[in-house]
Amino acid sequence: MINTVAWFEIATDDPQGAEKFYGELFGWSFAADEESAKGGMDYRLISYPGADGPRGGVYGTGGKFPGHGVFSVVVADTAATCARAEGLGGEVVFKLLDNPNGPDFAYIRDASGNLFGVFTPPNAAGA
């Protein structure tokens, strides 16, 4: 559903360490995201006991992006949401639009400096 929290992400330059930590702590399992891998991104889908499918991911940053743990909100239009966030005093930290290997997404800092994500699933713009 649009404008709801739909995903969480853990970004780290040590994805194997994150898998070990969260796997042992919570019983989560991990699988490579093949679509992201096609685009050269190390992204691992997180599944947890009782879930009907992955609801999160570990992003292997390779040291090119700060580590973080964030929630992400599904939106109808990532670019428009970024523009609205900036108009409200937020800051777009990173955005990827017209992503051929997955959803359009962005990381935004709210007016208080908190990082969160937004994304538009493929073929869902305007939904």
From TrEMBL:
Highest taxon listed in the record's lineage: Bacteria
Domain VOC: 4-121
InterPro entries reported for this sequence: Anthracycline_SecMetBiosynth, Glyas_Bleomycin-R_OHBP_Dase, Glyas_Fos-R_dOase_dom, VOC_core
Protein name: VOC domain-containing protein
